[in-house]
Amino acid sequence: MPYKCCTYGCNNVDGVDKNIKLFRFPLNETTKKEWMNAIQRKDFTATKYSGLCSARFNPNDLVENPHRLILKKGIVPSSFNYPATHIQKYRKKKLTGNVYSPVLNEIVQNNSNPDDLTPLNEMDTLIDLTYYGSKEETNRKIEESPVKSNLRKKLKALQQTVRRQKLKITTLEVLFNDSMELMSTIKSSTDTETTDTIANNFTETFLNDLIQNTNVEPTARRYTSEVKKFATTIYFYSLKAYSYIRSSISLPSPSAIRNWISNIETNIGFLKNVLKEIANFPDKDKYCCLILDSMSIKKEIHWNKVNHKYSGYCDYGNNVTIEDCESAATEVLVFLLSSLKKKWKWPIGYWFVDKIKSIVQSQLIKMAITECNEFGIKIINVTCDGAYANLSTFKILGCDLDQPYDLIKSDFKIHLFTPNIYFTTDAYHNVKLARNASGTFGAFKDEDNNLIE
After folding, report:
1. Distance CA 355, CA 330 (A)
2. Whole-prediction pTM value?
3. Which of 44, 171, 296, 352 is packed most tightly, with the most Cβ within 10 A?
4. From CA 202, how far away is CA 367, in angstroms rounded?
5. What is the block-wise mean pLDDT of the chain (453 residues), using blocks of 10 residues?
6. Cα(112)–Cα(102) distance, rounded to whole angstroms?
């Protein structure tokens, strides 16, 4: 069906109003020409998709039907309301001719039509002229070549880029001036009030280290452990942010931070350095939840030049052989501790595995809880996805998950005299499993074969 009425000035669209219907131009050539003459559109040729709306016909031209409008055969549209000066909207005309350059000034100044000018000698300079309606538009279009127009657009884009950069520079200058003002205050502060203000924003150790390293050569600077932790944290969050802060206050160089990190042991297995660090926390912050999850990795075997051996096989670290380690690893199993009272999560171990078995995973959980107990870390809960292998793991540990809801046993013990540890499945993963099961089975039934609503 046609989409929009072809009548000049008519915006009726088919399907919007039940009282408006579009009729295609008739296939009969004689009637078709009568329709084209009736709409009075210059240089218009009707296609098989062209049509007129029912508002262009008199009510007597339509068949009375309560369901839809039907047009009688041989009817010519006659209901039009054209403006006084109609026919067509004004469109720009491109005229190319032999025009001498002085004539260009006359056209621009008087807004005269190029058709009224007489071409001059062929030896005169020729230009390509485009005539547009208004004088201002004529001036711009005639004087600008395509190359100049493109350059003008590029210039506008570059100017906008410069404005944004100036705004960004201004913001950075304000931050930099604030930092430099703080630095000058730190260096020259002698009164008690200023010192107290600075002490509220920095610890005493950090502040003393900052002042001592200000007038020392970079190679002779020494940093406390607190400054090293601060610098390493900012460095891992954003290298650009660290470079900016380092331009205002004396902090270690990025190469020094990389050297510190390279000395940390991160071999496969349990991370002893992490457990030792957590052991220094207050006792109230050592109550944790053990989270475990597997992540897929690319199966690949390559030669490790540092350790002089092949890497990429299943590996449990510390020369521990729990199962066949000759197959390539497809997953990395990560154990992570999350504090129950503070907002921190630290990984304590990782292993390269290939679809780990439930019995092996249960042994790793026992080892992880035992290691944490040695460092005074108290595991209250273990959380993981609700996959079948994970459920089997906790059944091996002593949980009974196949009972009715009221009889489910979700806790287990590592040793006889240790407190109970509770197993909790990840709530988000359970929602995803329920969604997938609902999409696969459509409905669920209880043990009495009744539909669960």
Report:
1. 7
2. 0.48
3. 352
4. 40
5. 75 75 86 87 83 86 76 84 54 45 47 48 41 48 72 89 84 67 57 56 68 74 82 84 80 85 79 89 90 89 80 77 73 92 87 88 91 91 89 91 87 86 88 85 80 76
6. 13
